[in-house]
Amino acid sequence: MFIRELKEPLSSLKGVGKQTSAAYASLGLNSWGDLLLLAPRYYEDRQNIVPLGLVADGSYANTFVQVISHSYFGPLGRKTLKVTVSDVSGQGDATASLLCFGRNFLAKTFRVGLRFYLYGQFNLNFRELQSSQFEMVLLNSEDSLPPEFGKLVPIYPLAGTLTQKTVRRDVNRLLAMTEEFTEELPVSINQRNSLLPINEALNYLHNPPSLKKGEQAYFTFSFIELFYLLFTNRRKSGPSAQGAFDFKLLDIQKRFLETLSFKLTKDQEEVTKEICNDLLQERAMNRLLQGDVGSGKTLIAWLSALLVVAQKKQVAFMAPTELLARQHAEQAASYLEPLGVRLAFLTGSVSAKGRKLLLEALANGEIDIIIGTHALFSTPVKFKNLSYIIIDEQHRFGVAQRIALLQKGKKVDVLMMSATPIPRTLALTVFGDLNISTIRMMPLGRKPITTYLVSNQSRNRMYASIEVEFSRGHQAYFVYPRIDDQGSSNLRDVESMYKYLSTEIYPNIKAALIHSRLSDEEKIDILRKFRARELTYLVSTSVVEVGIDVPNATCMVIEHAEHFGLSALHQLRGRVGRSSLQSYCFLVYEDKLSEEAKKRLLVMKNSNDGFYIAEQDLLIRGPGEVSGFKQSGFLKLRFASLTGDPHLLEIIRDEADAILESDEGLIKLENAPIREVLLKAPPFENLTMES
Fold first, then answer.
1. Same domain, 392 and 534
2. For the segment 356-398, what is each residue's pLDDT rounded down to a tens digit?
3. Among the listed residues 184, 187, 237, the one whose alpha carbon sits nearest the alpha carbon of residue 678
4. Cα 449 → chain centroid
5. Is the peptide bond before 683 cis (omega within 30 degrees of 0)?
6. Greater model confidence, 220 or 542
């Protein structure tokens, strides 16, 4: 079978009609290749006879039976067929009942006197063995055996009208049509990692002679899938520039550091060197700076930007919201304007007249650093010499938006920042095209935030504890998942709780309400008053999740915490604990929690480590929405698991790097059939392999 045939639609396969084709499509299976590489969920062991007489309660029978009678049970008009069968395997006499819920038509198929092969799970009910989930295959003669008997039988995911019998039939038809595949990976890789030849792996995947062979086939395709993922990503990036120079700080950078009231941590010094080394390379930088909330990433961004400004080049700093961009602009003004750096601020709210003058200055090179939102990559924005782009909260921007900004300069270096640490397994795979700098150490003097899980019954004690913090002159946030009480949800909302807190709980304490329906000017004014301690607490939605830095705030209350993801909970908690003051986070939950919600809340209670939390998020949810990507459109892996063995990922990464550094790096994989199928789903569909 050639790659052209693998691309054939499943509707062209004999026996696959419109209904079956639609059912396959709902599973993401559209071509012959998709079905050929459909991974079984598991294998049922039907190798040996298990007669009805030896079936324990809740276990499986694998035997031969004869239908001895039909009967019906249930109320009039809704009678259910019950088929009584007797074991004829020769390994003891026993009978059992097959309950055919909604399948009374089977009376015509399971006729009295006929013999069948039977596989099913049985339970002991009403003093008889019963099964409602079973498989029966007619025996045409005494000597005939059905294809399912005596084997390990693959169990596939199903949808719509699909049955296991249908999928097995179609898969085996494709296997029978398959010609010899040429090995796609170098033989040396296959040998070092005990991979099966592709043709053997395909056959063992769907028809394993033993469980060990099935596992080996699955491992082979997992390895190949991860190899292509890492090889594709790492091929785009090139080596890191780390260590290329023994970088020394420039005078302007030293003057910047002298204005600070603290010294950089060792991690901050190291990532500054990594970034500045990259900025001095001929190859454009593509680097991710990750660090926990409050670890000082923005400070490092300004420090590295000074290197570019000193070379008479321009810097663009992009943030996802006007609120966050404005805060960055205010911080930059206090840090950089005294050093003679020319700053500008651009968002959609800048007036037409002011925008015109600003854009002219930017195009003429009269602005060194421009800070803004999505407005920065709009068509009218032109630079004289854009050299460096810094993107805060990088996962909130699409690839197309980043490219639009990149096209405004030549050989533009990119630094993307994220306060949501990337799990190590994701960093090895999805972000293989990035060089990654990590800040793990928190600034000196910071204390771990104490986190409490608060039930509804303990709410009043929580309010009292926060009032003690108010008496000490400290501040707090109260966060709720929705703005008002409109709709059918029973969740507490910002507007109702603001009224309740300000009249019933803290009537004489100044507070404010903040949410996304307020204008940016209103939100900025409220935050200015909060920083100035004119307000003691804020009642808010998750609009305060990122970028709010108020060192005097020591309490974070998150209501209905079970409705927030780990990343959001960690970001919200990071709004406190930003000084030497002891801070507290209260996660208020409802009484009935799902198992996943319990796991998330316990992770938050037991750890302040963002990297550990990110790994747990990956384990609990899978790679779905970690780092802002949804599972339905990102990282649809057929075989591999990113929560599996990290050591295997490192082995595969090293194998990919070895090929890239050798003559084998010129290997042509454009027309490799297995690669075409495995890398068809996002994020690969728009990628091409270079020769």
1. no
2. 999 999 999 999 999 998 888 888 899 999 999 998 875 555 5
3. 184
4. 26
5. yes
6. 220
> What is the full DSSP assignment across 266-328?
HHHHHHHHHHHHHHTSSSPPEEEEEE-TTS-HHHHHHHHHHHHHHTT-EEEEE-SSHHHHHHH
Is-contact 379 401, C-beta < 8 A? no
- Domain of residue 549, CATH code: 3.40.50.300
Which CA distances in Å does 44 have to 131, 210, 215, 255, 343?
Answer: 17, 11, 13, 70, 67
| Residue-wise pLDDT tens digits, 289-314 | 888 777 889 999 999 999 999 999 99
Tell me the residue range of the domain where 330 lies: 251-439
Q: Where are the alpha helices (DSSP H) in 92-185?
A: 164-177
Which two structure tokens, joined as six digits, stand for 56? Answer: 């324990």
Residue 642: which of 452, 430, 460 has the closest Cα? 430
Pairing of strands 413-418, 386-391: parallel
Mean pLDDT value of segment 650-678: 67
Q: Is the pLDDT of residue 452 over 90?
A: yes
> First CA to last CA across the chain, in angstroms?
24
β-sheet bridge partners, residue 557: 478, 586
List the beta bridge partners of residue 555. 476, 584
Rounded to whole angstroms, what are the CA distances from 321 to 41, 349, 378, 525, 665?
Answer: 43, 12, 15, 16, 42
Beta bridge partners of 414: 286, 389
Question: Does residue 639 carry a pLDDT above 90?
Answer: no
265 and 400 housed in the same domain: yes
Q: Which amino acid is at 448?
A: P
By the 8 A CB rule, do 555 and 588 touch? Answer: no
